[in-house]
Design a protein that fits this description.
43% strand; 5-stranded antiparallel sheet; 3 helices; 17% helix; alpha+beta
Length: 94
């Protein structure tokens, strides 16, 4: 399920994880997001992000293990940014 719902992009700083267009269509308008805390450890296959939307409430599993380097702070203020194409959730160390 994760491959269809989350994308990963690696750069020199780490791996950015975001929502695929498929996940956004599947969820509908997102109303709440619980993102991991910066500095926390995530383990591949374990729950890392919880989203509430008009069509579903889902918990996505981490596609890769590491330390959370950054989260989408804009989403904490205005969750609607997660409805936009290419929306990112968090960045994790390699």
């Amino acid at each position: 399920m994760t491959e269809k719902n989350l994308w990963m992009k690696e750069d020199t700083e780490g791996i950015t994880v975001g929502l695929t267009e498929f996940a956004q269509d599947d969820l509908g308008s997102i109303s709440f997001a619980m993102l991991p805390k910066v500095g926390s450890q995530v383990v591949a296959g374990e729950g890392v992000v919880e989203l509430e939307a008009e069509k579903a409430v889902v918990e996505y599993e981490a596609p890769t293990s590491g330390t959370i380097l950054a989260v989408n702070e804009e989403a904490a203020k205005n969750v609607k940014v997660l409805d936009e194409p290419g929306a990112w959730l968090y960045k994790v160390s390699k």
